[in-house]
Amino acid sequence: MKYMLMMNTPGNGPYQIASWPREDLVRHIQFMKAFARKLTAAGELVAAEGLSGPDQAKRVRAGNGGKPVTDGVFPESKEFLAGYWIVQVDSPERAYQIAAEASAAPGKGGVPLNMSIEVREVMSEAPREWQE
Amino acid sequence: MAALDAATQQQLRALAPEVLGILCRRTKDFAAAEDAVQEALVAAAQQWPAEGPPEHPRAWLVQVASRRLTDEVRMAIARRAREETVVSLVPAEAQVALGADDGGAADDDSLVLLFMCCHPSLSPASAIALTLRAVGGLTTAEIARAFLVPEATMAQRISRAKQLIRDSGIPFERPGADAFTARLGAVMHVLYLMFSEGYAASSGDSLVRTDLSGEAVRVTRLLHRLVPGEPEVAGLLALLLLTDARRAARTGPAGELVPLDQQDRARWDRQAISEGVALLAGALPQGRPGPYQLQAAVAALHDEAPSAAETDWPQILALYEVLRNLSDNPMVELNHAIATAMVQGPAAGLALLDQLASDARLAGTHRLDAVRAHLLERAGDLAGASALYRRAAGRTASTVERDYLLAHAARLNDALGA
User: Fold this and answer.
1) Under an 8 A CB cutoff, do B199 and A43 touch?
2) Residue A93 domain-assigned?
3) What is the DSSP code (8-state) at residue A18?
4) Where would you tag: which of B37, B86, B113, B365 has the fewest CB atoms within 10 A of its CB?
5) Phi, psi for B197 (deg, rounded to 5)
């Protein structure tokens, strides 16, 4: 079974990580790299991407004649998708375990961030029990 | 690059376990031998289309794989030689050739390979992947396509599975008589799950995904040839054939799910049905019934009914009664409730579902909701059925099934609104 693990951060302005001291920044990035390496070595990582910050994001709607109408400010969003992993695991419990590990990524001063990670199953299951 | 034609590819895949068996016996190192055979298969896929298949494909594969393996051994010796002062006097080629025995034991080898790949210490997903590679002769890329994961992810998963086998010290030999039945059960379970996985895959873009259901049938056919005296293996092969026979009718033009009672029976594969029925006819009289034989018997009753209305539900119900006593499986209980409803009316089926509601394995799953919705609809409670179809749609992890359930709910809502 596959799960998508979505890492959410507060939605106002650029990522706070940009204002961290260099040492904390390096520690955080090293943690994330080691985390990805570990998932890869376990044969569990299907895909992972980090996304650009809320200040770079555009919201798009179709306008007249299907032309894109963009809107770029999200003062109302409390949480914002910062990145995701898709993992192939043998149980939901394993997906939760991986999410908890990502959640505890080090933040300022090396203190675990305990970020909120949303865990959702990817719809890839067999369509109904095939035995009638 | 030219590709192998289908017949050559099938031949190549069928040879894979034989070649691997030969190398395993020579080297006593399953993991290294398996890597070498995989490389030989990839080399064949690259060279044969251009140069034409060799005169003796099996010998060609053994030779190429042995050469890879010899290179490996030579490198390992070189590493050891650098690390230690003692150098082995046995040349690398001789080490590989030690205990060489190519004679006639190919069938036994294939069986031992199946037992290894489906070892209970492996997770089902890993066992399926390893079986497809070592016994099915598929490349890592093909297996990755079946599971929709990157090739590197699948390679890592297979390599870890082999590491686990190596660490656990499972010998490359046939399990003893006491363990044989349990290990055979594990193999059958993995093949059953491989087939199910293929069912999920076949709902997607079948042009790019590897046909796992077809591979499961092929490997189960091999298993049946290796242990022809096991009625449950015959039952499993019959079950897969009788189910796979409906494949073409199972999805509509837009990929939507078509339930059994609405399928165009003219599109069912009659040849697969005859083969499944014949297998069952050979297995059942042996008097050693098991879950696969019984499920195959149910599938056969569906397949042989001229129309949905003429399905022999009383006999299906009787088979589920026996199945219930053999296994503690909530899916059997659900199917038993459906069969009861078909014979005794929806109220009797709904009463059974009420008893199942407390089963933790079914609580919160979409299947219980979907079956209850179906029976409520038949009992005339359209509003209740619609609500449950919608709830089931929200709980399933399958997109085609979600669409199917939502379509049911929408149809009932339209009927209620009219």
Assistant:
1) no
2) yes
3) G
4) B86
5) -60, -40
Nearest residue, CB atoms, B148 vs list A43, A90, A124: A124
Q: Residue A45: which of B153, B367, B398 has the nearest Cβ?
A: B153
The count of structural domains within chain A is: 1
Q: Is the ipTM of this complex over 0.90?
A: no
- B233 CA: distance to closest CA in chain A (Å): 17
Measured between CB atoms, which of A121, A127, A131 is closest to B401? A127
Find the domain containing A28 and state its range: 2-121
At position B87, the amino acid (one-letter code) is V
- Chain B: give the shortest CA distance to residue A98, in Å: 16
Neighbours of A17 (CB within 10 A): 16
C-beta separation of A24 from A18 below 8 A: no
Q: pLDDT tens string for chain B (418 positions)?
A: 577 888 888 899 999 999 999 888 888 788 889 999 999 999 999 999 988 889 999 999 999 999 988 887 777 666 655 544 334 454 455 544 444 444 446 677 889 999 999 988 899 889 999 999 999 999 999 899 888 889 999 999 999 999 998 888 887 788 888 889 999 999 999 999 899 888 766 555 555 567 889 999 999 999 999 999 999 999 999 999 999 999 889 888 877 888 899 999 999 999 999 999 999 999 999 999 999 999 999 999 999 999 999 999 999 999 999 999 998 888 899 999 999 999 999 999 999 999 998 888 888 788 899 999 999 999 999 999 999 999 999 888 878 888 889 999 999 999 888 6
B193, closest residue in chain A (CA to CA): A126
| Mutation for testing the A interface, residue in B156, B212, B213, B403 having most A CBs under 10 Å | B156
Q: Is B150 within 8 Å of A127 when comparing Cβ atoms?
A: no
Cβ atoms of residues B193 and B124 within 8 Å: yes
**Alpha carbon separation from A58 to A14, A18, A63, A74, B172 (Å, rounded):** 14, 20, 15, 9, 59
B367 touches chain A (CB under 8 A): yes
* A45 and B CB contact within 8 Å: yes
Domain assignment present for A129: no
Instruction: Using a CB–CB cutoff of 8 Å, tell me whether A40 touches chain B.
Output: yes
Residue A128 covered by a domain: no
Count of beta carbons in the 10 Å neighbourhood of residue B413: 16
Q: Are A45 and A87 in contact (CB under 8 A)?
A: yes
What the block records as the tokens of B408 is 């049911």
Task: Find the Cα–Cα–Cα–Cα dihedral B71, B165, B226, B327, rounded to 10°.
Answer: -160
Q: Does A48 touch chain B (CB under 8 A)?
A: no
Is residue A109 one of the residues assigned to a domain? Answer: yes
Number of Cβ within 10 Å of residue B18's Cβ equals 21
CATH number of the domain residue A66 falls in: 3.30.70.1060
